[in-house]
Amino acid sequence: MPGLTIGDTLPDLVVETTHGKIKLHDYVDNAFTIIFSHPGDFTPVCTTELGMMAAYADKFAERGVKLLGLSADDVESHNEWIKDIEACNKGSKVTYPIAADPDRRIIKQLNMVDPDEKDSSGQQLPSRGLHIVGPDKKIKLSFLYPASTGRNMDEVVRVLDSLQRASKHKIATPANWKPGDKVVISPSVSSDEAKQMFPQGYDAVELPSNKDYLRFTNVD
């Protein structure tokens, strides 16, 4: 399914992982799930990234979020590499599964193929991609980084917090939002509806247009 992006349903693939065979929809079940790919095992940036995923595992678990790594290397390679990941990250254990994709079948269906990077045999490598999948099995957010740039895990946690709040309330999060900041009420919510949905109240910003679409409130 080339071009998999926000709003698309995650393909229900069966993948071999360090935790055994996994069917993606069964694995996601009713939870938010992060599926993240990396260009290759035993590479510097990827080692730091997977180590940081391990270090943040408790933060993800607190939010009920599952993790699934992926690269084109095989399971045996993953298992050996995990020793390096844990050693380089102050002992944080890699408790999440890492999927193997030696024939590059999965990365193509998940739209995680790097457009430029290739291995020594000329085969395309996985991108440094990340999909956040919702409980409905649909892609809610995607990040794509070049091989030279590692992901920021604080940003991954921040957008998860945003997505999970928006899944419970008719709100969106403004620029530079972080947990504890006010959110904005969806423009589809009328003023009368807003009073019922947000009994804690809200602040409407006075604008030159005299339209009251910019309304801030607090939600958990």
TrEMBL record:
Its EC number is 1.11.1.24. It comes from the Eukaryota. Keywords: Antioxidant, Oxidoreductase, Peroxidase, Redox-active center. The keyword Metal-binding does not apply. Coiled coil: none annotated. This is Peroxiredoxin. It comes from Rehmannia glutinosa. It catalyses: a hydroperoxide + [thioredoxin]-dithiol = an alcohol + [thioredoxin]-disulfide + H2O. PANTHER family: MCG48959-RELATED, PEROXIREDOXIN-6. Thiol-specific peroxidase that catalyzes the reduction of hydrogen peroxide and organic hydroperoxides to water and alcohols, respectively. Seems to contribute to the inhibition of germination during stress. Residues 4-165 form the Thioredoxin domain. Pfam families: 1-cysPrx_C, AhpC-TSA. The keyword Oxidoreductase applies. Belongs to the peroxiredoxin family. Prx6 subfamily.
